Amino acid sequence: MGSSSNQQQASNSYILGLWGADGYHRTSSIGLTSIYPELIKRFHLFLNNKFPLERIRLRVYSNNKQHKLSKTMSWFKGKLHFSKGTKLRHFAYQVYVNSRPLLRKFRQAVDNRLILPPDDLAAYFAGRFDGDGSVAKDLRTDFRIVYTNFAEANTDKQLLEKLGFDSRIYRYKKAGTHVIYVSRFESLRLCKALQPYSAKLKRLLVTP
């Protein structure tokens, strides 16, 4: 019972990090937008544990008029919509539900993530990394996570310290972003901590 509960909490923390990075939201809708079917599937599984299938929607963006899911997305059985994209090199997917209460919970959880239990931090950062992070192939250099503003980056810098890692924040004025960097002395250790949860570090993020 305890082990199952811990696994569920880690999964929720991963989803929170993923939504914090690439989350979709409107006034009363919450979901995820990504070109990676694996990330869409993970977020769909989270939603499907909370809502009946008929509540979950998938929107597919493409440059052409193809109205058919790829084999990597054939698992989806909910409501499906196709939309015209703009200058897309790959299909883009948006899975979501209309739920103002869930959106409120996510926003509160992101705002209050400094109180996340230490055991959930690796899963949370795995989600953030899968959404907006990258690292060199050797897993030793150039570990980074991109943020839209300094406050977001600084909060996660504090969480990394709780997890036992030092980091620095750099501002890229032209791109309008702030980026957390972890040194090459810490990168491999951090990747090993995130790998059990991260789809990207398990090399599961393949575009169709």
List the defining traits of the structure above.
208 residues, alpha+beta, Endonuclease I-creI, 2 domains, 5-stranded mixed beta sheet, 4-stranded antiparallel beta sheet
Tell me the domain tally.
2
For the secondary structure, the number of strands is 9
Distance between the termini: 37 Å
CATH class of the largest domain: Alpha Beta
Main β sheet profile: 5 strands, mixed
Label the structural class: alpha+beta
3D shape: globular
Q: Supply the CATH architecture of the largest domain.
A: Roll
Query: Helical segment tally?
Result: 6
Order of the strands making up the biggest sheet: 1-2-5-3-4
* Computed Rg: 17 Å
Report the helical percentage: 25-40%
Tell me the fraction of residues in β-strands, as a range.
15-25%
Write the layout of secondary structure elements.
Layout: H1 2-22, E1 23-25, E2 29-34, H2 37-48, E3 57-62, E4 79-84, E5 92-98, H3 100-111, H4 121-132, E6 133-134, E7 143-147, H5 150-163, E8 168-172, E9 177-182, H6 184-194
What does it look like?
With 208 residues, the protein is an alpha+beta fold. It has two domains: 2-108, Endonuclease I-creI (Roll); 117-194, Endonuclease I-creI, CATH 3.10.28. Helix content is 39%, strand content 22%. It has six helices and nine strands. The protein has helices spanning 2-22, 37-48, 100-111, 121-132, 150-163, 184-194; strands at 23-25, 29-34, 57-62, 79-84, 92-98, 133-134, 143-147, 168-172, 177-182. It has a five-stranded mixed beta sheet with strand order 1-2-5-3-4. A four-stranded antiparallel beta sheet has the order 6-7-9-8. α1 packs across α2 (37-48) and α1 packs parallel to α4 (121-132).
